[in-house]
Design brief:
The chain has 52 residues and is α+β, with helices and mostly antiparallel strands. It has one domain: Sulfite Reductase Hemoprotein, domain 1 (2-Layer Sandwich), CATH 3.30.413.10. It is built from two helices and three strands; from the N terminus they run H-E-E-E-H. It has a three-stranded antiparallel sheet, covered by helices on one side. The longest helix has 13 residues. It is globular, with a radius of gyration of 10 Å. It starts with a helix and ends in a 5-residue tail after the last helix.
Length: 52
């Protein structure tokens, strides 16, 4: 996604900023992380996402 507004509409998303970003799940900010941890955190969320 492009930013926090769009990420809030996704089931799971990340929104990056300067050297940090937000992990967002179902419209709620879950964590604020350094940029080097964003992809790992997103992967962990996807690995544990319930199958629907």
């Amino acid at each position: 996604v492009n930013g926090p507004g769009e990420a809030r509409e996704a089931d799971i998303g990340i929104a990056g900023g300067l050297h940090e970003g937000l992990l967002i799940r179902r419209g709620e900010i879950v964590r604020k992380l350094p940029e080097d941890q964003l992809l790992g955190a997103l992967k962990d969320e996807l690995d544990h996402w319930p199958a629907e």
